[in-house]
Amino acid sequence: MTEYAPAGITEEKNGVSYGTLKKYQYYSTTRERNVNVNVLLPADYNESETYPVLYALHGYWETEDSLAAMSSARTMLGNLNANGEAEKMIVVFPYIYTSKTKEACDGLNLENSLNYDNFIHDLTNDLMPYIEKNFSVKTGRENTAITGFSMGARESLFIGLTRSDLFGYVGAACPAPGLTPGTDLSMHPGQLQENQLKPAYQMPNLIMITGGGKDGTVGSQPSVYHNILSANGIEHLWHSVSDGGHDSSSVQPHFYNYLRGIFQSKK
Average pLDDT, stretch 48-54? Predict the structure, then answer.
């Protein structure tokens, strides 16, 4: 693991093939309407082959477009594939604000936070079945990963740990407060108690948390989760980016390390 992503890893290079990022819609029974999702298919995607899947969750106020742009996943993954440093995979960028009555977040409060928490139901009941039906994917936890940024990172930790029967790899870049009880902007009571911050089923092959040393939005919260996992005896990687803020300066180093670490256990 490296602190920073190497220079040029997000730039297109001659002779390298890159994947295709395209917007789709699926019907969400959880929301009772159609919902957008961006899907990044690997270069030379072939339906006669199957690919592992990474679900990547955006932050508060954001959309399915946000993390795809912030991470530069398309070019980064293409370069990593070309270098033999990462597996070919499908990356799914969903819209995670999940409400039957509201299509978008309209405030920084508990009501809206709970609608982000509700994404676990959309993901497991609606989105994952849609992806598995419409794309050539490898199924099972060994072939399924999740990560996210900010609020999406909080949700990726929550989903990845509570549904560790479905996800073999769990990542979080600059996770927001509220996964465990504490004072935060939305006064969230906590999705899990501190002693519950552990895999509910099997131990994932990888749990990785990234925190930015200059993150003025979530501050030291990522290290709080790191310390809770350590206190609970849960093996994980703690990735600190000294100059990382609450933006691509932390997200891209996270993706660089995480993409190289997932789906590698079979080798």
Answer: 98
Report the first-to-last Cα separation within the chain, whole angstroms.
18
How far from the centroid of its chain's Cα atoms is residue 63's Cα?
Answer: 13
pLDDT at position 189, please?
85
Domain with residue 100: its CATH number is 3.40.50.1820
Question: Is it the case that residue 6 has pLDDT exceeding 80?
Answer: yes
Reference 68, options 45, 91, 88; nearest CA is 91
Query: How many domains, in total, are found in the chain?
Result: 1
The domain in which residue 70 lies consists of 20-261
Tokens of 62: 């954001």
* Residue environment code for 217-251, b if the CB has 16+ CB neighbours within 10 A, otherwise e: ebeebbebbbebbeeeebebebbbbeebbbbbbbb
In a domain, 214, yes or no: yes
